[in-house]
Automatic annotation (TrEMBL):
Signal peptide coordinates: none
Enzyme Commission code: 5.4.99.5
Residue span, Chorismate mutase domain: 5-96
GO MF term list: chorismate mutase activity
Top-level taxon of the source organism: Bacteria
Pfam families reported in the protein's UniProt record: CM_2
Family annotation (SMART domains): CM_2
Source organism per UniProt: Bradyrhizobium cytisi
GO biological processes: chorismate metabolic process
EC top class, as a word: isomerase
UniProt name for this protein: chorismate mutase
Length: 282
């Protein structure tokens, strides 16, 4: 006589398994907190500077994306991890997030809460320049500003030595229906050893800026442009990937009829993951 297949687990048994996992996750978080407490003591004697570690965060996020599977949305995993890392960063060195709400206050607030949770203080500003200036006056705060448009060339504040720099572009995982889809730059002071330089951002000031010049540059890099009528030009924020270089950008500007007045490196960030509608990763 053939054996009957084993009976499926009961709801009570499955809920017990879930409760055990929940308890395990909580214990692991407390264990992580204990290690962070010890880390704080070590940093007081071995390390000086910002608690932000963009290169390490990008590496950890890539590991999460690569190993993720199952029905749990990747967005949820991204948000949980971001809140954990941001909260523990805040525990190590308290900071505030200064957010430019001029583009969209609800979208910016969603971005701040998705990436930093509710423990990190949120400070709203009515312009990107005000948010960046607040960070420049702080000891270790962070600013979030739009990565795709601007009314003022706030990135000029990042040109000087010792000024805050662009350290990240969020969200790290991008897809069409991301719950915090507003593209933003994170601006703060970070030790050189902690930055990631897969995409470099440059402040470029040009004369002779027009629609034809803009079209010539669009295939080469992501650009935010603010016209400067005083010089018949523009202040550009140019994101340069490994596929091109700032020299190629300058050559394209000159070939299109513009004059390059100045260039300055104002930050860098990690290459983002794009998740197509099918859910596969790229």
């Amino acid at each position: 006589m053939s054996q009957r297949p084993p009976a499926p687990p009961s709801l009570q048994e499955l809920r017990k398994e879930i409760d055990a996992i929940d308890e395990g996750m909580h214990r692991l978080l407390m264990q992580r907190a204990d290690i962070i407490d010890r880390l704080i003591q070590v940093k007081q004697t071995q390390e000086v500077g910002s608690a932000f570690r963009p290169a390490r965060e990008a590496s950890m996020m890539r590991d999460i994306v690569q190993r993720h599977r199952g029905i749990l949305p990747l967005d949820t995993v991204e948000s949980i991890w971001r809140v954990i890392i941001s909260t523990f960063t805040y525990v190590q060195a308290p900071f505030s997030v200064h957010a430019d709400i001029s583009v969209s206050e609800p979208a910016m607030r969603d971005s701040v809460r998705f990436h930093f949770g509710f423990t990190v203080p949120y400070v709203a500003h009515f312009s990107a320049q005000a948010a960046v200036e607040a960070v420049a006056k702080s000891k270790g705060d962070l600013a979030l500003v739009s990565a795709t448009s601007s009314r003022t060339p706030w990135w000029l504040e990042l040109e000087a030595d010792g000024a805050p720099k662009i350290i990240a572009r969020l969200p790290f995982v991008e897809r069409a229906d991301h719950p915090a889809a507003l593209p933003v730059f994170a601006v703060s002071r970070v030790a050189d050893s902690a930055v990631v330089t897969e995409v470099e951002t440059f402040s470029v000031r040009v004369s002779g800026w027009n629609a034809e010049v803009a079209r010539a540059l669009s295939p080469l890099a992501e650009i935010v442009a603010v016209p400067d009528t005083a010089f018949d030009g523009a202040a550009l924020l140019v994101s340069v990937t490994s596929a091109t270089s700032i020299d190629k950008i300058k050559a394209a500007l000159i070939e299109a009829g513009a004059s390059v007045r100045s260039t300055a490196l104002v930050g860098s960030h990690a290459t983002r993951y794009t998740v197509p509608p099918t859910g596969s990763k790229s």
